[in-house]
Amino acid sequence: MKKVYMKNLGSVVSGNVNNPVIDAEAIYAEDGVIQYVGAAKADLEAAANTIIDVKGLDIAPALIDAHGHPPINDYLPDYKATDFAVNFMAGGTGSMISVGSTMPGMPFTVSGVKAVAVAGKNVWATYRPQGSKIYGGALMLVDGLQDKDFAEVAAEGVKVVGEIGKSPLQDVAKAAEMAKVAKKHGFVVTAHSGGPSSCDCASYTAADLMKINPDVICSLNGGPTPMSDSDIEKVIKEGDFFYDMLGHGNLRILLKAYKLAVAAGKTGKLMLGTNVPSMSGYSPLGLWVNIAALSNANQDVHPATFIAMASGNVADCYGLNHGKIEKGYKLDTILLDGFGYDTCPFKTLQSGNMCSVSFVVMDGELRMPGCKNVPGPSRKPEIINK
């Protein structure tokens, strides 16, 4: 049994938006699952076969991208970019939720969308570059899908209905009916919001989304064009949804949506995503861009709150067993440090800058001792294998 003990922790970002920073000196995991978070324990350290001395660096859950459109491989044909999953890992984003494939030649038929969903789920479940977790296989809606089709695809382990409005079925009434059927079979239903993100994408208002009634309203701050301010207020104040916001969306709306969510008691419903691949290409640091912007604009809020929007909140929405530093969750973590004139990563983020990220651990296994897309830490942890 693999037993990992992490000690000499700095601040611990929990991934829980309601308790974003916890007091802990050590983390102990068995076979990649956290069993203990708390004060240092000599007996757990003695029992471990791998000890990681963090040297006082701050620790957070590996980030989860709440909004991606990955194809069924580690190549983005839209931008001829290879190894995108590895590059996301190289910035501390260990996981990604697919809200629907945008592969060239996507077959928008009943048999086609079912086949792509099942294939995407199975390929990414077994193909994990550098230990990354890509949740592929979202089912895109098309005319002709019936109850038995949702049941069949759900039985194959597909859990997400891809972004409604991005496939040919865009009629609001039809989408609402299919969303009901999908939810009956346990799917998390996602839907586009705001202006079209491409020439063949729908444009949905708050009234449309209230009728469709998805679980997740995508691109709340625009992808790139958001709904009107009044529509955004409506879906936050009156709706019962999760909301994802994108790195290339409207910055003003990103900040406003957070304030609205605070007032409505819904910060646990906000998530961050990159929309890779999008009209802005792909951004391995896209989540950090929004975390830094939110941290800079809200100096009275600990940046761990915004890190939770790209970790624990996503886990809550999609029922994941990682994204929080808590007993029972997978040991998926990153180490943080300050950069430049700030010696603290949280002050770095509050300055609007990218902090240092290193040492990506997934399922209790070290995957990246350093992250090439971000500045390195001031010190390195020490690993002792018994």
Give short descriptive properties of this protein.
386 residues, 5-stranded mixed β-sheet, 5-stranded parallel β-sheet, 12 helices
Q: How would you describe this structure to a colleague?
A:
This protein is an alpha/beta fold. Helices cover 29% and strands 23% of the residues. Strands 5-4-1-6-21 form a five-stranded mixed beta sheet. Strand 14, helix 6 and strand 15 (216-217) form a beta-alpha-beta unit. Helix 5 (172-184) packs parallel to helix 6 (206-212), helix 6 runs parallel beside helix 7 and helix 8 crosses helix 9. It starts with a strand and ends with a strand. The model has no long low-confidence stretch (mean pLDDT 94).
Q: End-to-end distance, in Å?
A: 13 Å
Query: Percent of residues in helical segments?
Result: 25-40%
Radius of gyration: 20 Å
The main sheet comes to: 5 strands, mixed
Query: What portion of residues belong to β-strands?
Result: 15-25%
Q: What is the number of strand segments?
A: 21
Secondary-structure-derived class: alpha/beta
What is the count of DSSP helices, taking H or I runs of 4+ residues?
Answer: 12
Biggest sheet, spatial arrangement of strands: 5-4-1-6-21
